[in-house]
TrEMBL record:
Localization (cell): Cell inner membrane
Protein name: TRAP transporter small permease protein
Domain named Tripartite ATP-independent periplasmic transporters DctQ component: residues: 30-161
GO MF annotation: an example: transmembrane transporter activity
Topology of this chain in the membrane: Multi-pass membrane protein
Transmembrane segments: 22-39, 51-70, 91-113, 133-154
Function field: Part of the tripartite ATP-independent periplasmic (TRAP) transport system.
Amino acid sequence: MPAVIRHYVRVVDAVNRRLGRLVMYMIFVMVAILLWSSISKTFFFPSLWTLEMAQFAMVAYFMLGGPYALQLGSNVRMDLFYGDWSDRKKAWFDAFTVFLLIFYLGVLLYGGWESTSYSLQYNERSSTAWRPLLWPIKVTMCLSIFLMILQALSEFFKDVARIRGVSI
C-alpha cells in the first residue's frame, strides 16, 4: 500500500481511537445528569433542563463513539454466513459493502449539514420549556458523521490490504 494511504489509516485510526476512549466517559456525565434529575424531583423543585440535557449527552455519546465502534468491529452484523468465512472473503465482502455505508453516511451528512446551517442561521431553539439552542448538538452530529466516513474509508483501505495479503 502507498505510504499516503498507510499514513491516512494511522492518523484516522488514532484520532477516532482517542476520541472514542474519551467519549466513553460521557456515560458518567449522562448518569450524573439523570441522578440530579431524580434528586431534584424528589427533594427540590424539578429541573427543566435535565431530561433534554441527558438526551443531548446520549446523542453525543452514541454518535461520537460510532467511528471507534466501527474501528473495533463491534458494530452489529448479520452473522448467519459471515462468521464461517475466511478472513479474505470477509475482507472482500466488507470492501464492497463499505460503499453502501459511505453512501448512507453521505446522505446523512448532507441532511445534517442543511439542518445545522438552518439552525445556525435562525438561532433555532428546542420547543420545550427550557428552550436550549440546537446548533451545538447538530454540529456534534455532523462532526461524528464526518469522522464515521473517514473511518469507513480507513476500513476500506485495511480490507484492500487484507485482500492483497499486506498489513497496514
